[in-house]
């Protein structure tokens, strides 16, 4: 599981302030899923953090990814063509990307929209771990743009 993250992005904040992202992390890592939170923000851009700052943020928020990947060069982000935070990519146990897109079908920054949303990550992980084809393999990700080096925003 790859989760693109920017703690300054209101869309990311929606899922962290509500506990939604942490609940997903805990639920799925308990089932053996390796969960990487990826931060592709460049130095001087929104969301850029060093290791100590991110560790403090994880502790404050009660987050539980397997690990955080600090990708300030954007290498990992460009490899997976990450466009937004949060953007979610599910890779099945065979190493095949089976889902790429939004966390859910409510592209807002309003915490109230989490309730009743269709969670694409849960769906993809459930189907993939059951050895089934993923019903929805791609959706349009929503959120803030990834703040790569050289980007204007």
CATH class: Alpha Beta
CATH-derived architecture: 3-Layer(aba) Sandwich
Termini gap: 26 Å
Q: Can you write the helix and strand succession as a string?
A: EHHEHEHEEEHE
The outline comes out as globular
Count every beta strand, where a strand is a DSSP E run of 2 or more residues: 7
Structure description:
With 153 residues, the chain is an alpha/beta fold. It has one domain: Glutaredoxin (3-Layer(aba) Sandwich), CATH 3.40.30. The chain contains 5 helices and 7 strands. The protein has helices at 10-17, 20-29, 51-61, 75-79, 120-129, and strands spanning 2-4, 36-39, 67-70, 84-85, 88-91, 97-101, 144-145. β2, α3 and β3 form a beta-alpha-beta unit.
Compact summary:
The chain is α/β, with parallel strands linked by helices.
């Amino acid at each position: 599981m790859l989760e693109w993250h920017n703690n300054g992005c209101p869309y990311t904040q929606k899922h962290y302030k509500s506990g939604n992202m942490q609940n997903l992390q805990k639920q799925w890592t308990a089932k053996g899923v390796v969960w990487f939170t990826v931060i592709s923000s460049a130095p001087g851009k929104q969301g850029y953090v060093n290791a100590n700052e991110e560790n403090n943020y994880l502790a404050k928020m009660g987050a539980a990814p397997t690990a955080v990947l600090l990708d300030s060069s954007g290498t990992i982000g460009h490899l997976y063509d990450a466009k937004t935070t949060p953007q979610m990519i599910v890779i099945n146990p065979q190493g095949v990307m089976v889902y790429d897109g939004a966390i859910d079908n409510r592209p807002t920054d309003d915490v109230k929209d989490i309730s009743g949303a269709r969670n694409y990550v849960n769906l993809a992980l459930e189907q993939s771990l059951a050895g089934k084809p993923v019903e929805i393999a791609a959706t349009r990700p929503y959120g803030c743009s990834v703040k790569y080096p050289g980007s204007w925003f």
